[in-house]
Design brief:
Layout: E1 2-5, E2 16-19, E3 29-39, H1 41-48, E4 64-69, E5 74-78, E6 86-90, E7 95-96, H2 103-123, E8 131-134, H3 140-151, E9 156-159, H4 164-172, E10 177-178, E11 187-192, H5 196-203, E12 206-214, H6 228-234, E13 236-240, H7 243-246, H8 254-265, E14 272-273, E15 277-278, H9 282-290, E16 298-301, E17 320-321
Parallel strand pairs: 8-9, 8-11, 9-10, 11-12, 12-13, 15-16
Antiparallel strand pairs: 1-2, 3-4, 3-6, 3-16, 4-5, 5-7, 14-17
Helix pairs in contact: 2-3, 2-8
Length: 325
């Protein structure tokens, strides 16, 4: 079967299409024929060695797929080697999904959607009427966090994005305005995945007893060391968040994911998707993601005949908000 593998650490150029034996299901496992595989920033960190050790090479990346089981069920699943035509998953971890949710939307809900849900509910503990600032508001997590903040009763939601087009997308998704630091008045909650200078600016934009939730460092620059005296002066809290241990808590996966799926089916939540990449174009997908040329959820389609989008610009993501309403 076709898969994408890297045998050494590096940039997108190390991702190579290879033919490998199809996996064989063992006890308690299910074979899935992949309809689409999600691409996440964490995949680029695996590729450059940030997440893996040399002893784990060669490696097929990819942590999430939509596909069908051998008995015909359409499922969403967290996996370990998703950039392939077929993957294995524990039967107990399969999440049935309806046929009327497109694969890219379903994939957006698994990692990005659950991250956005837990950022607001578990980490920030959003209360009705509180103000929320979402950094990277046109990205996979940010675009969903803007919508969920409104759904969960936020009083005012402001968006920060890296270009005018991305700002317009965030406004179309329900943001009340564009955030420019320092804010006046300050925000109750700021969700930050960028790190670096933007984090430092945001910290000064918190209202009394505000919370900034840090869940990534897309800028790849170090934070300024946090001085407890500074937090005391600001009456501020810094909360860290990582999805993987959060999902180990009872009730952290299936209940929130069901809510996200229901909101999507009702048209109240619109996962942002765009042009898809063929599995063999994984290098280009990683390049575009790393260079912040993407918007919303990007996916790989394991079809040997090239990109699934026949129009101009195939291989690049031109994102658009989509929904069922």
């Amino acid at each position: 079967m076709l898969a994408i593998r890297f045998d050494r650490f590096g940039g997108p150029e190390v991702l190579t299409p290879v033919d490998v034996p199809a996996p064989v299901a063992g006890p308690g496992e299910t074979l899935i024929t992949v309809e689409a595989a999600g691409v996440n920033l964490a995949d680029t960190f695996q590729t450059d060695g940030s997440y893996l050790s040399a002893s784990q090479l060669p490696h097929i990346p990819g942590g999430e797929v939509v596909g069908r089981t051998e008995d015909g069920r359409r499922v969403l699943a967290k996996v370990t080697h998703g950039y392939a035509e077929q993957v294995l998953c524990a039967e107990s971890a399969l999440i049935p999904i309806p046929d009327d949710i497109p694969a890219p939307q379903a994939l957006a809900l698994l990692t990005q959607g659950l991250t956005a849900w837990h950022l607001l509910r578990s980490a920030a503990r959003l209360q009705p009427g509180e103000s929320v600032v979402v950094h990277s508001a046109a990205g996979g997590v940010g675009s969903l966090a803007v919508q969920l903040a409104k759904e969960f009763g936020a009083g005012r939601v402001l968006a920060q994005a890296s270009s005018p087009d991305k700002e317009r997308l965030a406004l179309a998704l329900g943001a009340d305005g564009i955030a420019e630091h320092p804010l006046s008045p300050g925000a109750d909650i700021i969700l930050d995945a960028a790190g670096g200078a933007l984090f430092d600016q945001a910290l000064e934009s918190l209202a009394d007893f505000g919370r900034i939730v840090t869940y990534g460092n897309a800028s790849r620059t170090p934070h300024t060391p946090l001085d407890p005296a500074r937090l005391s002066r600001l009456n501020a809290a810094v909360v860290g968040f990582w999805l993987r241990p959060a999902l180990a808590r009872p009730g952290a996966l299936h209940g929130p994911l069901k809510q996200l799926l229901d909101l999507t089916l009702q048209g109240r939540l619109r996962p942002v998707t765009g042009i898809e990449y063929a599995l063999t174009d994984a290098q280009q997908a990683h390049t575009d993601l790393r260079e912040r040329r993407t918007t919303g959820k990007i996916v790989l389609r394991p079809q040997r005949n090239g990109p699934t989008d026949p129009g101009p610009g195939a291989g690049r993501l031109l994102a658009r908000p989509v929904g069922n309403g």
